[in-house]
Every structure is written in structure tokens, then in C-alpha cells.
């Protein structure tokens, strides 16, 4: 997520974002996350898309056990943390450098000590330094509410193309707010086979599954 400073307001719908912490239960796992919107902006609060994606993972619709996963634009790290707790073999949780200390603290708070070695917090600005990540080296790429800044779309697609093999499953959870969001899906379909696999009507969140097109498909 982009690091956007926030000037407080009193809109009731946003009041939960001012809480210093939030708590969730996914299966037998209790997760408590620190939030700090005043310091880090949208990167330091839990958005509905992350919650819906975690609920979807909890349902077991996607096999996590033994998988190597990476979360993009992790913010508080909720999705990556839940993926690890639900059985992913190794999880890399990424965001831009200013968010890493905050992110790492949430990971340490919620991942059992004997599992911490399998969860890595890593800097990733989309489109930059991709050589530090194995090309096509992930079974799953996860993203929650990362489709909202149009200027980042080309670099996000470049990053996804680098991380994914033809066997990688991408799960993107997002709210379709503007025409630019549907434009991103159109861009994504040039490189990936995309289908909507879940819609949370209450929260107005879509989950899309994307699989990289093979040379035969192109």
C-alpha cells in the first residue's frame, strides 16, 4: 500500500481506523494488529479487502499447506500473517521501506516463535529490485486493496509477472470504486487468466483469481 499521511476527521465510517489495535479470529488463530494511521497513513490500518481475503482463505477454498506465498503491499500484514497461520510453508510479507518496522512488529506479535523463521518481512517497491526475488518462485501471490493508484499499475503488473510462474495462483481482493480499477483488470487480462471467485456483498469486496497465461494462450 502507498504510504499516505492522514489528517484526522470525524466521519463515523472511518472511526475504526483510528483504533490503535484491532483483533480477529480466523479458525483457532487469534490475531491482534497494531494500527497507526496518523504516522503511516493507509499502510498502517486494516482495510475490509484484507479481512474478506482472510475469511476466504479460512474457508479452505485455496490450498495453503506447503505453499510458498508472498503478499504485496501488505500494510499491517494481516493477509500474510493469516496465510502463515493457516499452513503456508513459507511467506514473504512485503511493503515499502518506511512501513517495514511497523510490519515486522505485527508479524512478531502474531506468529509463534517456532514459525517465525518461515515468515520474512521484506522491502518491495513494485517494479524495483525484482532481481532480489526469484522469478516465478512463488506458489501464491496475495494482494488486498492494492489496486487503487493508477500510476502504480504498470509496475504492479511488472512485479506480478516476475513473481509468477504458469503454476502460481494470484488472489486479489479489492473494491471496484472507479473506472481505473476496471482498467487494471483489463490490463491484467493481457497477461493472466482472470476470474472473479468471490464477492462479499456486505463489504462490497471482490476477490479475483489470476493465473499467468502460457505461451500457448497468448
From TrEMBL:
<protein>
    <submittedName>
        <fullName>Uncharacterized protein</fullName>
    </submittedName>
</protein>
